[in-house]
Amino acid sequence: LNQVRDFARYFKKSPDQLGEDEAKEYLHYLLKEKKVSDSTYRHCYSVLKFFYQTTLKRNCVFEKIPHLKKGKKLPVVLDKTEVDTIFSVTKNLKHKAILMLIYSSGLRVSEAAHLQITDIDSKRMLLQIRQAKGGKDRYTILSNVALGFTEV
């Protein structure tokens, strides 16, 4: 509601007297003059869209108003010495085994947390990941080194 209030204050009018053109102008103001973050802009866009389409039941065409998409960042890739350092300072064998599985098999932390002993297929050198991202099951490789740590 704060975003709707600020929007109305910007034009010094009730929000039900404002429309699509004002929303576009206000969002442009937020981005270019007020220099809000991308996430703040996206949030305000969504609030105004909801307010007009759901609360006021207006058919404002918000698709014509620029909607910033969240940028995708590439993960940080560690070099060999950084990886070796992580494994060398980890003394607890259980922690080392978990780190080795995560690193060598490309697991997400949540996937590693849900692993069971029965998910390890040492004959085919595979790990079964249950209910991975999107609720889907998948298989991933199991390295010889990681297998060695799981057998300790």
Please tell me about this protein's structure.
This protein has 152 residues and is mostly helical. The chain has two domains: 63 residues, no CATH class; 71 residues, Intergrase catalytic core (hpI Integrase, Chain A). The chain is 50% helix and 7% strand. It contains seven helices and three strands, in the order ααααααβββα. The protein has a three-stranded antiparallel β-sheet, with no helix packed on it. Helix 2 packs antiparallel against helix 3.
Low-confidence stretches: none
The N- and C-terminal alpha carbons lie at a distance of 56 Å
Q: Output mean pLDDT.
A: 88
Oligomer designation: single chain
CATH-level-2 architecture of the largest domain:
Orthogonal Bundle
Q: How many domains make up the coordinates? A: 2
Number of helices: 7
Strand content: 5-15%
Instruction: Specify the CATH homologous superfamily of the largest domain.
Output: Intergrase catalytic core
CATH C-level of the largest domain: Mainly Alpha
Strand ordering within the main sheet: 1-2-3
What sequence of helices (H) and strands (E) makes up the elements? HHHHHHEEEH
Integer-rounded radius of gyration: 25 Å
Determine the CATH topology of the largest domain: hpI Integrase, Chain A
Q: Largest beta sheet, briefly?
A: 3 strands, antiparallel
Helix content: 40-55%
Class by alpha and beta content: mainly alpha
Coarse morphology: elongated
Please report the total strand number as a whole number. 3
